[in-house]
């Protein structure tokens, strides 16, 4: 009989955390939940802890995760949004057999350090993102030289067919209305600008140790083919599934074994059309920014992520318009000076510098797309 897996869930009240709770609750006896955390949602944390029978529940706005993360577990699911999840991810790597990564920002900003830390501690990193999880499932790690490239699919978001002029007038409600996935606010806005896919390009570079030119992005509006791997013999292996995050979450929580999930099933007989098209880099410049940052170096990836987090926060707060997001990010990338970042502390300081720079740019009304009040 399979042994019960011990698990931590960092960010249990977010969309990923809630989906993980569904998977765990649907498989009684498979997991023993050691720790669940949330930042401010105390009621949601209490409810999740009770539902999952968690031994410990911690509110990170009040308590530190350092000591609780010293307890060894089989799997830690890192689902704390943004750079705020970097330190807890590094701590989790030290005490977990595997770390399931749902927040891409720490890998974008500190990919080389995260990968080296995992290698040092013998910890397996498992991608939760549907695209990276798809790649993970069809990527032959033992025959890497046979892989020519990976293809990350993108739905195109709510503005896939919109003109630049139309997007400049997009409202918050429109930007949050993703056509296929149910997600949190920050990642929904990132999907609308296609910054989410830009960050995923950088994440894939580190996770799979691939050159930027071996990472391609294609638009796939149906979100059925989650990603593909192309091999040297011309074979193209793809992972298909419904738009349900419980599927990749189940894959990583019980890896390497498969786990029955309450997620949706894909009826291939009902598929009439699968569309694929090249991305428009003019309407969605975030993609070009990702490749530019990989060419410039890790400091630029830190700048891209930091500036975007600040800009999205200001858009969500109504301080700038939709087009102002990438305008502010573009400005900060122009101002970002080459800097060596050998430690996590160095990365955090540079991250803070770029955040201050971006905030000042927005506060000074430099964006041409500021919302008038």
Question: What's the short story on this structure?
Answer:
The protein has 373 residues and is of the alpha/beta class.
Keywords:
373 residues, 14 helices, Rossmann fold, 3 domains, alpha/beta, 4-stranded mixed beta sheet, Rna Polymerase Sigma Factor, Chain: A
Task: Give a written overview of the molecule.
- By secondary structure, this protein is of the alpha/beta class.
- The protein has three domains: 5-128, Rossmann fold (3-Layer(aba) Sandwich); 130-244 and 266-295, no CATH class; 297-373, Orthogonal Bundle (Rna Polymerase Sigma Factor, Chain: A), CATH 1.10.1740.
- It contains 14 helices and ten strands.
- It has a six-stranded parallel sheet with strand order 3-2-1-4-5-6, sandwiched between helices. A four-stranded mixed sheet has the order 8-7-9-10, covered by helices on one side.
- Helix 3 packs parallel to helix 4, helix 9 runs parallel beside helix 11 and helix 13 (323-335) packs across helix 14 (344-363).
- The longest helix has 20 residues, at 344-363.
- The radius of gyration is 20 Å and the shape is globular.
- 49% of the residues are buried.
- The model has no long low-confidence stretch (mean pLDDT 94).
